[in-house]
Amino acid sequence: MVQYGFYFNEDRCINCKACVVACKDWYDLKPGPIKYLRIYEYEEGYYPNIKTHIRWVTCFHCSNPVCIDACPNGAIYKEEKYGAVLIDQEKCKGYRLCQRACPYGAITYESDRLANDVKANKCTMCIDRLEEGLKPVCVLACPMRALDFDTMENLVKKYGSVKQLKDLPNPSLTNPSVVFKPKGEKKKIIPYDEDKALLLLGSREPLPPIFKSLNDIKEIPMGIRLKDKLILKPKNIEELMELTRDDNG
Ligand code: SF4
Ligand code: SF4
Ligand code: SF4
User: Fold this and answer.
1) Which of 4, 58, 103, 150 could pair with 154 in a Cys bridge, judged by C-beta atoms 3.0 to 4.6 Å apart?
2) Residue 188 has what pLDDT?
3) Is any ligand 2 atom within 6 A of the Cβ of residue 125?
4) 5 phi and psi angles, rounded to 5 deg
5) pLDDT reading at 50 higher than 90
């Protein structure tokens, strides 16, 4: 079997979510919690050493798909031509054992209601398009060319073999069909006095300054910022919607 997979370049991604919208549009998925593809953005560190991470997360059609083993109804299977892991919704009874097993949180449901008719949903690798000789629609939609799709062999030849980004699950768990290009180190292009810049930013004379102490900005406790860690497996739909909301306008 030839295994196909994805490439994601974090350095190029601008979190525009064109890929997410294209996927929703192609599969006619309503706005809401059924998301074949999710983009998580979260911050690490404090001024001036703050870093934003973007994680592009779909089903990675793993070589060791633990979701298949978890389903007692045989509703998930790996097809032979592209190595896509697919769901047979007729067989799905909504037990959510696959969702629990998948370390990437790739399986979503239309509601939190536990019932046989609330079925599992996830990325199909755009197998309908592959059969027509087309690439997955998310890959083609990316205006930054941050994505690619090919056989894993070709992807590894072109981009290397990094299968993990910081805070993502250890790839040895499932051997995901993906290659990542992590973000490069942050460079200070123009040297400046960081504390002075911060004081200027906080000043709004003749009104009092926005913050009293530089430490108010430089030592923000965990939990105050909305997205200060990666949560791949939200506890319910409300949390999923909150974490995948676009705060950028
Ligand atoms: S990413 Fe999750 S749902 Fe997709 S194949 Fe791997 S274990 Fe299964
Ligand atoms: S491969 Fe297709 S189904 Fe999967 S995330 Fe991309 S657009 Fe959606
Ligand atoms: S379309 Fe490309 S740049 Fe935009 S969010 Fe998706 S991967 Fe990132």
Assistant:
1) 150
2) 81
3) yes
4) -165, -175
5) no
What domains can you pick out in the chain, each with its CATH number? 4-186+228-243 (3.30.70.20)
Helix spans in 14-96 (H): 18-26, 66-70
pLDDT band at 222 (very low <50, low <70, confident <90, very high): confident
Distance 36 CA to ligand 1 centre (A): 11
Contact between residue 99 and residue 59 where contact means Cβ atoms under 8 Å apart: no
For the chain, report the end-to-end CA distance as a whole number of angstroms. Answer: 44
More confident residue, 220 or 69: 69
pLDDT digits (tens, 9 = 90+) for 12-23: 999 999 999 999
Q: What is the pTM of this model?
A: 0.92
How long is the chain?
Answer: 249
Please name the amino acid found at residue 72. Answer: P
State the Cα–Cα distance between residues 229 and 44, nearest whole angstrom: 7
Rounded-to-5 percentages of helix, strand, coil across the chain: 25, 15, 60
